[in-house]
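Example for tutorial group B:
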């Protein structure tokens, strides 16, 4: 988890700066960001469904990491937009499915040893924080050209760690077929949850795709960018521990509504910010936005999805939280950011967050007693 989420800091936050350094426009950066979510919309389902069907996470996770390493080596050799676009598309086929599988393995490991998932997930935040800061200083000292070399080194370490993992006990479960999965996907509860998640994710991915570009426009150097990313990741840790201890006492939908409202406040402040130091302060809200939402959403999915579709359920959540939202925000966000400006860009993100708040809160208030909280979708 430490090295996997360290790679996230690199790919999500520093790849845009690398693209900018080799001469790509904001619109081109948006397209490169968008192609990953487009690829992951089917790659997440392919690999996670295979994991559920063949009852293994470790072997598929290792295969994905090998694919990432090979494609990073290829990406190091190209610089034209068309070639970069092709190679990064293949890279994302192996990159995005790692996260739902890693979370599923973390859930299994937590259950095996009687620990909380959030305690294991904290190491992802620590990895993101450490590498966000360290990579910022390395790139600041050595140049943006080191971005891919760092990515290759991280891939090697993650692959070596993956070889030491142990698959959970995944006994064969009845009902593991596509027909049951399709019936499950027609559940009104899931559709409502994923619809609200998509609204919030659009706002979150808009910020994620152009956060480092925003800081760069405000005059921040690579070191300050690293600190901004580290502050966000470190702020998650106390929230994860608090939710691990007390989160089960609070129903999921009110927590999701609260996180969405705080996202709206965060993006409103980003629209008004005119100094990189102000942006650093706003980053502290990451704890009660992403931190609260992510842990609560994983708990919701884990409770609602039947055991035989656990990895597939996490993949579906990832598709809405990362893939579909990243595709839309990447395809249109670059154009919007370039032509409408940063304040309007973030005001739109704030409005989407408030829409998600209304959806989660409305579902909580309008649901019949016992309809949502007393029983999962799987019965």
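The residue assignment follows.
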């Amino acid at each position: 988890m430490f090295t996997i989420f360290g790679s996230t800091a690199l790919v999500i936050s520093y790849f845009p700066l690398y693209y900018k350094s080799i001469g790509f426009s904001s619109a081109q950066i948006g397209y490169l960001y968008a192609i990953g979510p487009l690829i992951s919309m089917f790659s997440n389902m392919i690999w996670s469904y295979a994991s559920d069907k063949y009852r293994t996470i470790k072997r598929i996770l290792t295969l994905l990491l090998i694919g990432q390493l090979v494609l990073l080596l290829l990406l190091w050799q190209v610089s034209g937009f068309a070639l970069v676009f092709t190679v990064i598309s293949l890279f994302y086929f192996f990159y995005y499915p790692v996260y739902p599988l890693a979370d599923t393995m973390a859930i299994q490991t937590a259950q095996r040893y009687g620990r909380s998932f959030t305690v294991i997930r904290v190491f992802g935040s620590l990895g993101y924080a450490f590498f966000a800061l360290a990579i910022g200083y390395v790139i600041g000292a050595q140049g943006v050209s080191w971005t891919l070399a760092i990515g290759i080194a991280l891939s090697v370490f993650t692959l070596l760690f993956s070889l030491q993992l142990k698959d959970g006990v995944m006994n064969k479960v009845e009902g593991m077929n596509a027909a049951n999965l399709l019936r499950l996907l027609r559940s009104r509860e899931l559709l409502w949850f994923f619809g609200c998640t998509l609204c919030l994710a659009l706002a979150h991915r808009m910020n994620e795709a152009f956060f480092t570009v925003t800081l760069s426009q405000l005059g921040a150097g690579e070191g300050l960018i690293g600190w901004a990313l580290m502050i966000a990741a470190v702020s998650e840790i106390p929230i994860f521990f608090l939710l691990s201890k007390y989160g089960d006492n609070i129903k999921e939908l009110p927590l999701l509504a609260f996180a969405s409202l705080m996202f709206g406040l965060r993006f409103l402040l980003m629209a008004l910010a005119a100094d990189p130091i102000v942006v650093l302060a706003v980053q502290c809200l990451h704890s009660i936005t992403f931190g609260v939402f992510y842990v609560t959403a994983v708990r919701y999915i884990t409770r609602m999805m039947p055991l035989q579709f656990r990895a597939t359920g996490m993949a579906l959540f990832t598709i809405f939280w990362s893939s579909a939202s990243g595709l839309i925000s990447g395809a249109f966000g670059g154009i919007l950011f370039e032509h409408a400006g940063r304040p309007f860009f973030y005001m739109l993100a704030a409005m989407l967050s408030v829409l998600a708040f209304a959806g989660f809160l409305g579902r909580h208030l309008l649901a019949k007693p016992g309809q949502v909280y007393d029983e999962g979708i799987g019965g």
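The longest helix spans residues 310-340. Compare this with the pattern of hydrophobic and polar residues in the output above.
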